[in-house]
């Protein structure tokens, strides 16, 4: 096993893999990387499985020291990354880089987007649970001892787990779609007796501001107040990442990957699967709007997205 | 189950919401439970992930991996026309210590009910409950069956930290906090059991459909069970 240690964890750094939505009936949300697209691309660049665990840094980067040689890739939110060692240099994001034993990788503040991923060839070794490999902060399990990383923590990885990647990839092509697009497509739910058409119309016309009260459980929006017709009469029901709830104060909340699995606020729309990764890159004060799409259009967009992603060779998980 | 007993609608582009009734009644909850069990047992390839609630079942899947999800779901739901899928009920006994240290709101619940605190304990631990579903947070069971007179409003000012295992009442619901969180329920006791442990074979102590009873224990038994559980980790 090789390892690296945390010198400075930054504001909030956790170990996250791909979300694992298979035991929601126990009250456990899918969790995982808030921006799964950046994690997948970082892993493919390194020859990892898509689901390999990596570091997820929030708003500020981490500083880590590698005890052994490693290959790494930095994806997601934009930050300045410096390699300090025998030959110091700046590391280009979305590309694989070789680091030597003793090298320090220093990430600066995240200047665009909200979360940056530090992926390691081989993936970070974790103790798996029924719920995958990701950290669930609320219940305190998964990832690295179920908690955010602290200075002095040492994480293991096995470079032999990665497969060599021969092709040079223009992986940074994903950056603009994650960091520049601020109109999210969403599928409207039947309004039924929960919203009136004027309220829904106001939602689609408003440019909202992301509140600083946002985190992995949800993104709170500030802007026009959206009236609901069913205050206090809702019966709790199942939720999903991307569901746009409207509580009594009329300020929508877009549920994140660590959302409460059930909720009692009416849902106006759900973010289309193709745009879910962008949610993980929304940062406080960002402006965001929503655009309605039909279910079939959302599926068409998702298919096109997978075709684009398919140009990056994927390692198939062996059937056990 | 007759087709008229539920409605299916899209909830975004990768979930279907199955609604079994507009009212949270025992009949609706039984329909949710039997549909949940039916899909769990018939969905061999585990394409569907399920979030049951009082009146609805949210069914999540990969939209490009499941063809015609709505039809597939209807086929499963209608494969047992009577709705009589075999339903087993586990009985879970939860020891609860109602000592004053663990029950800062026992007095207020008692005065709201117009009975003495020991009578609240007697009735709370004497009732039979059922887990309507597990949701919100890992291992949190929504229990039905609280005696009507024990219903009490939420605290006007929620606590910033409620210890794990706290047993509370909010409205006509009673439940147990699986982990330490902020919370506005009125606390009347605490269990030494762990409601959720990701590393156990069965991470969630409570599952949808389980029958639950609370057994009143004294402080000594609480400490003894607590030590056993902590020692086994």
Describe the structure.
The complex is a heterodimer of chains A (320) and B (233). Chain A is of the alpha+beta class and 320 residues long. Chain A has helices spanning 36-46, 174-179, 197-205, 276-279, 295-309, and strands at 2-8, 12-16, 54-58, 63-66, 70-84, 89-90, 96-99, 104-120, 154-157, 183-188, 208-210, 218-222, 237-238, 243-245, 253-255, 262-263, 267-271, 287-292. Chain A contains 5 helices and 18 strands. In chain A, strands 1, 2, 3, 4, 5, 6, 7, 8 and 9 form a 9-stranded antiparallel beta sheet that branches. Chain A has a 7-stranded mixed beta barrel with strand order 10-17-14-15-12-11-18. Chain B has a 4-stranded antiparallel beta sheet, with helices on one face. In chain B, strand 1 and strand 2 (15-19) form a beta hairpin. Chain B starts with 6 loop residues before the first strand and ends with a helix. The model of chain B has no long low-confidence stretch (mean pLDDT 92).
């Amino acid at each position: 096993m090789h390892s690296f240690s945390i010198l400075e964890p930054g504001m909030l750094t956790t170990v996250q893999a791909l979300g694992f939505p298979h035991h929601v009936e126990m009250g456990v949300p899918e969790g995982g990387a808030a921006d799964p697209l950046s994690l997948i691309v970082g892993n493919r660049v390194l020859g990892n499985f898509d689901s390999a665990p990596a570091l997820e840094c929030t708003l500020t980067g981490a500083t880590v020291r590698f005890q052994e040689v490693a290959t790494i890739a930095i994806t997601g939110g934009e930050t300045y990354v410096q390699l300090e060692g025998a030959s110091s240099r700046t590391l280009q994001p979305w590309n694989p880089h070789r680091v030597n034993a003793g090298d320090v990788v220093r990430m600066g503040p995240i200047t665009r987007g909200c979360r940056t991923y530090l992926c390691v060839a081989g993936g970070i070794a974790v103790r798996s649970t029924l719920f995958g490999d990701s950290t669930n902060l609320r219940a305190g399990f998964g990832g690295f001892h179920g908690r955010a990383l602290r200075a002095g923590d040492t994480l293991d990885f096995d470079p032999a787990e990665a497969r060599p990647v021969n092709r040079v990839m223009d992986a940074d092509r994903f950056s603009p779609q994650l960091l520049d697009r601020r109109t999210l497509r969403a599928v409207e739910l039947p309004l039924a007796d929960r919203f009136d058409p004027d309220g829904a119309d106001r939602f689609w016309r408003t440019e909202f501001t992301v509140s600083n009260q946002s985190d992995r459980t949800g993104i709170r929006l500030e802007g026009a107040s959206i009236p609901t017709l069913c205050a206090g009469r809702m019966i709790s029901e199942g939720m999903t990442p991307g569901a746009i709830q409207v509580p009594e104060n009329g300020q929508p909340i877009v549920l994140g990957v660590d959302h409460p699995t059930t909720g009692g606020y009416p849902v106006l729309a759900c973010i289309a699967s193709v745009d879910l990764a962008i949610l993980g890159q929304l940062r406080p004060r960002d402006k965001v709007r929503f655009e309605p799409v039909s279910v079939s259009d959302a599926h068409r967009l998702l298919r096109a997205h997978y075709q684009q992603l398919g140009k990056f060779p994927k390692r198939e998980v062996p059937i056990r | 189950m007759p087709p008229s007993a539920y409605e299916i609608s899209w909830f975004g582009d990768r979930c279907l919401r199955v609604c079994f009734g507009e009212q949270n009644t025992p009949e609706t909850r039984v329909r949710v439970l039997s549909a949940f069990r039916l899909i769990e047992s018939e969905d061999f390839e585990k394409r569907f992930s399920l979030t049951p609630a009082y009146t609805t079942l949210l069914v999540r899947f990969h939209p490009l991996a499941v063809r015609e999800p709505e039809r597939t779901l209807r086929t499963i739901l209608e494969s047992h026309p009577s709705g009589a899928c075999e339903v087993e009920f586990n009985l879970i006994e939860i020891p609860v210590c109602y000592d004053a240290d663990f029950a800062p709101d026992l007095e207020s619940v008692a005065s709201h009910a117009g009975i003495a605190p020991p009578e609240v304990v007697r009735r709370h631990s004497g009732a039979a409950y059922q887990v309507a579903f597990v949701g919100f947070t890992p291992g949190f069971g929504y229990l039905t069956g609280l005696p009507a007179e024990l219903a009490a409003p939420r605290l006007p000012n929620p606590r910033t930290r409620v210890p794990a295992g706290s047993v509370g009442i909010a409205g006509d619901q009673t439940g147990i906090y699986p982990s330490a969180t902020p919370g506005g329920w009125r606390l009347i006791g605490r269990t030494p059991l762990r409601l959720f442990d990701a590393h156990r074979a069965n991470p969630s102590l409570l599952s949808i459909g389980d029958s639950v009873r609370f057994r009143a224990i004294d402080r000594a038994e609480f400490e003894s069970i607590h030590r056993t559980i902590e020692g086994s980790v």
